[in-house]
Design brief:
The protein has helices at residues 60-80, 82-94, 103-109, 129-134, 150-168, 171-180, 182-192, 197-200, 206-223, 233-248, 255-259, 272-278, 283-289, 293-298, 312-331, and strands spanning 261-266, 303-308. The protein has 15 helices and two strands. The protein has a two-stranded antiparallel sheet. With 342 residues, it is mainly alpha-helical. The protein folds into two domains: 57-231, Lysozyme (Orthogonal Bundle), CATH 1.10.530; 250-331, no CATH class. The chain is elongated and about 70 Å long. Pfam families: SLT.
């Protein structure tokens, strides 16, 4: 827990986009077709592309800059850090914590076991002496400090993360409290009158605001997009409603439709709207052919995508270009939403 730490991870060249202290919670807007907007009614919301795990517009500028700065190092970390990530996945799962919370360790320490902050936080999870004492970890010099042990420190970090989630019920607030402390987050909630990070962030220290956005940025680099841990609690509820609506509204395909279509296995960060546009397929028709398309892909699973048979060769020839456009769309600010620079 890096209270006030000051090392070469504490700043990045880019925009923090702190937000407006006078901003209010944005209401979830509906488009009349069942889908709800994650980010209020200030943007057009396309039912054919319900925007699963879209990047909040208040984070776009910072995350884009962070990706440019860290992509090369994190790309290498995917390889040399695999052993540690596998360990994290196992222990986080044992403790009922989303495995994506491992990226908190990435931004805390860049997986450096011996990292010591100026505030006294140590190890890959940057645990403070008080946390070490609470979770029965030994402290001392060098390897005698159990905060430098990947296994022991991860179990301790899980206890802390679960405590914070019990307190706030919101993964972004967990990251904020892990960095800045429970008291600071509670104070920001009181002053802002909101539990929405994008509203209360203006009342948090700059370092803590950036820490949350670094976590989101790291998630985008490693996962190729957002996920449940990059949404606020309110955004999570909207996301679940959208998925339930999408899954519940699908119609069973007739034998006639099935005989006129072909299937290809795809994986990665594909967008239904981009594929439909590239192949000139009606977006609603694509959704009917491929129920739960983006949900399953977002979970890292392959999807047996169904297309009109006459479109299959066109998809295969454009596959790489379509995927690149889908990835670009993930990072693009929502339509009609200006990016405000701090």
């Amino acid at each position: 827990m890096s209270f006030g730490y000051d090392n070469n991870l504490s700043g990045i060249a880019g925009n923090d986009n702190e937000g407006d202290k006078n901003s209010k919670d944005s209401a979830a807007a509906t488009n009349g077709k069942g889908f709800k907007s994650l980010f209020g009614d200030k943007q057009d919301y396309d039912a054919a592309n319900p925007g699963f795990f879209r990047l909040n517009p208040k984070a776009v500028a910072f995350v884009e800059s962070y990706i440019k700065q860290e992509s090369e190092e994190f790309g290498k970390m995917k390889e040399w850090g695999k052993t540690y990530f596998d360990l994290y996945d196992r222990i986080l799962t044992e403790n009922n914590i989303p495995v994506e919370m491992k990226y908190l360790s990435v931004i805390e320490s860049h997986l450096r076991r011996t990292l010591i902050s100026s505030a006294g936080a140590v190890g890959p999870w940057q645990l403070m002496p008080d946390e070490a004492k609470r979770y029965k970890l030994k402290t001392g010099r060098g390897t005698n400090d159990e905060r430098t042990d990947f296994t022991k420190s991860t179990y301790a970090a899980c206890k802390l993360i679960n405590e914070l989630y019990t307190e706030f019920g919101d993964w972004l607030l967990v990251v904020a409290a892990y960095n800045g402390g429970v008291g600071r987050v509670k104070q920001a909630i009181r002053k802002s009158g909101s539990r929405d990070f994008w509203v209360l962030q203006s009342y948090l220290p700059e370092q803590t605001r950036k820490h949350v956005k670094k976590f989101i940025g790291a998630h985008y680099i490693f996962e190729g997009g957002g996920g449940w841990t990059t949404l606020t609690a309110a955004e999570t509820l909207i996301q679940k409603d959208n998925i339930a609506y999408l899954m519940g509204s699908q119609q069973k395909l007739s034998d006639t439709v099935l005989s006129a279509t072909s299937v290809i296995s795809v994986s990665g960060k594909y967008s239904a709207s981009v594929i439909a546009k590239a192949l000139t397929i009606d977006p609603t028709e694509f959704k009917k052919l491929n129920p739960g398309f983006e949900k399953k892909l977002s979970q890292g699973e392959a999807y047996e995508m169904r297309l009109p048979s006459e479109k299959m060769d066109e998809f295969k020839s454009k596959k790489k270009a379509i995927l690149q456009e889908c990835i670009d769309l993930l990072l693009a600010p929502p339509a009609n939403t200006p990016v405000v620079k701090a």
